Amino acid sequence: MTRLVVVSAGLSVPSSTRLLADRLTAATAEALGEVDVTHVELRDLAHEITDRLLTGFPGPALSAAADAVRDADGLVVVTPVFAASYSGLFKSFFDVLEPGTVDGTPVLLAATAGTARHSLVIEHALRPLFAYLRAVPVPTGVFAATDDFGDRGLQERVERAAGELATLMGKVDTSGAARRRRTVEDELADPTPFDELLRRASGD
Fold first, then answer.
1. What pLDDT is stored for residue 200 in this prediction?
2. What digits encode the pLDDT tens for the residues 5-46?
3. Superfamily holding 3-202
4. Of 90, 151, 170, 176, whose CB is crowded by the most CB atoms within 10 A?
C-alpha cells in the first residue's frame, strides 16, 4: 500500500500547524485513494531529538519515526514560523535523520504563522532545505496565516498541492521488497516527457 508520512512541528495543543497538516493529509488521501498514513508529531519527540543530538543515539520513538520517513512514498511536512524561518524543532528532526533518508522522496511543503508577512518562508527556507536533502518538493507550497483558515483560497491551495503530491507518489513502484524510489539522478537520466506531464495535469 502507498505510504504517506505527515511530519508536524506544532508546539501548542491544539495547534494551527497540526490543523493545516490534517487538511493536507485529508486532501492527499482523497487524491490517492487507498493510502496508509503515519503521523509524526515532533512535539512528542522533542526530548529524544535533543538526546540524539547530544549522544548520537536515537530513542525508540525517534527511531520509529525515522524508519517511517525513510520508507515513505511521500511526505507532508508542516512547520510553524519562528524568527522568519522553520522552527528549531523541525530543523533538528531532519538534522538527526541518516543521510539519504529522503533522497528522491516527493514532499509537500507547508508552514503556518500569525501573519502573512512570513508567506515567503517556504521559498526562502523550506525549499532550499529539502533541495539540499535531495527530496523532490511539489511545485505548490502551502502557507497559512491565522486569517487564512477561514478563507476559501487556502483550501484551493491545499487541494492543488495535494494533487501534485499524489501525482508524484503515483510514480512510485510499491512491489514489495524490490521497491526503490526514483532518485534525483533517476529523474535527470530519464525525465518524464512534457506532454505526459500536461496529460496528467489535465486529468486525461
1. 60
2. 999 999 988 899 999 999 999 999 999 988 999 999 999 999
3. Flavodoxin domain (3.40.50.360)
4. 90
**Interstrand relation of 85-86 and 74-82 (parallel, antiparallel or unpaired):** antiparallel
**ω before 137 within 30° of 0 (cis)?**
no
Distance (Å, whole) CA 113 – CA 115? 6
Which residue in this structure is represented by grid cell 538527526?
Answer: 96
Q: Which residue has the cell 503515483?
A: 170
Grid coordinates given for 141: 507550497
**Largest alpha-carbon pair distance within the chain?**
52
What residue ranges do the domains of the chain occupy?
Answer: 3-202
DSSP one-letter string for 50-79: HHHHHHS---HHHHHHHHHHHH-SEEEEEE
| Amino acid in the structure at residue 18 | R
Q: How far apart are CA 186 and CA 96, in angstroms?
A: 26
Give the pLDDT score at 180. 42
